[in-house]
Amino acid sequence: MNPLATTNNLATNPTLAVLGFKRQIVYHLHFWALVAVAPLVMVQWQQGNILLALLLILFCLNAVAVIAFLRFRSIYFLQGRLFPILAVICAVYSTVINGHAGLYWSYPAAAAVFFLLPLREATVSNIIFVASMSVVSFITFPEADFWRITFSLGLTCLFVMIFAWLVGRLQAELTRLATTDPLTGCLNRSQLADILNGQIQMRERYERVSSLILLDLDYFKTINDRWGHMAGDRVLQELSHRLSKRLRESDRLFRIGGEEFMLVLPETRQKDADKVARELLTSISARPFVEGIQITASASVAEVGKGETWSVWLNRADQALYEAKARGRNQAVSAARQLNEEPPEDADGTTLAADL
Ligand SMILES: Nc1nc2c(ncn2[C@@H]2O[C@H](COP(=O)(O)OP(=O)(O)OP(=O)(O)O)[C@@H](O)[C@H]2O)c(=O)[nH]1
Fold first, then answer.
1. Regarding beta strands 332-334 and 297-303, do their DSSP bridges make them parallel or antiparallel, or are they unpaired?
2. Is 214 in the pocket of ligand 1 (CB under 6 A)?
3. ipTM of this model?
4. Exposed/middle/buried for 217, CB within 10 Å: 0-12, 13-18, 19+?
5. The dihedral formed by the CA atoms of 82, 83, 85 and 90, expressed in degrees to the nearest 10
6. What is the pTM of this model?
7. What is 189-334's CATH number, 3.40.50.300, 3.30.70.270, 1.10.4100.10, 3.40.50.620?
8. Using CA positions, which residue lies closest to atom 27 of ligand 1?
């Protein structure tokens, strides 16, 4: 896959969009820095600054490697970390030997650090950078210049740090908004394929078997009709609260439709997932919801089968949910296994909670 494709085309999920955005930043910074710095190699070489010219060659080689790895291998060469380190070293050394001509490069170098390193790492690096530049300018330039350089470079760092921090927060907030359902806070469908595929890989590679539960409220329409939509919304909120209280931290809770939820239980076999489903249905029917609303739910349970895709896995669970509804609701049904699959050791019929 082209690493930059996620933002050139429309990304298929929010996590990929953020990844694509970060890759674009790394790619463009390295590309344009290469264009700007390559001619300087000749200039410094001709001026006899051999060490600086060699450092700049190293900088350019790193930029070429990062661009090539991102384009053709979809990976970060050295995590993109060599750029800020070399940029800072070159800027400090160039200021020592070239005076103001070298100093000007410290401003883009300081800004680039914030776009390439994690915020905390970038802040610490730039504090060290500004301190080094202050020492160099104190030794190299008149006192008035020393103050100007220290404050202007410090202020540049502060502005870019605030910008990078706010962009990071905005990214996190947009990802949260794009991946969760605003009413209940559960995950929405955007994460569904990724998470189910992750469980399938765990099964294929490590024989770690996961299960999923589909859960759908019974006759929810009548709640809306009788108590109104707001009450219906509060039931859904309380339901997601009750469900998440019973789950482990590694479990994932999705709202995949109006009153339909999906729970992914990593490393949980069918038998244990059946038990969880029964307990969830009990927790729904045992106590009334807001305004004394009494409601039940139907559920289906499916362990991931060997070699099956996420849509086949989900489809098996869907069929079992239809069956739970058809059998009179308020019960959980185990999904039929794939045709080519052996039955579980403790297969005991399909209806699990007819006695609820
Ligand atoms: N309050 C509220 N209602 C919703 C929301 N999303 C979907 N619904 C309602 O949920 C109801 C679902 O109705 P049906 O699909 O007939 O399902 P049901 O009444 O639960 O019947 P069964 O599933 O067959 O037991 C519809 O009336 C939708 O308007 C929501 O976010 N809030």
1. parallel
2. no
3. 0.92
4. buried
5. 130
6. 0.74
7. 3.30.70.270
8. 221
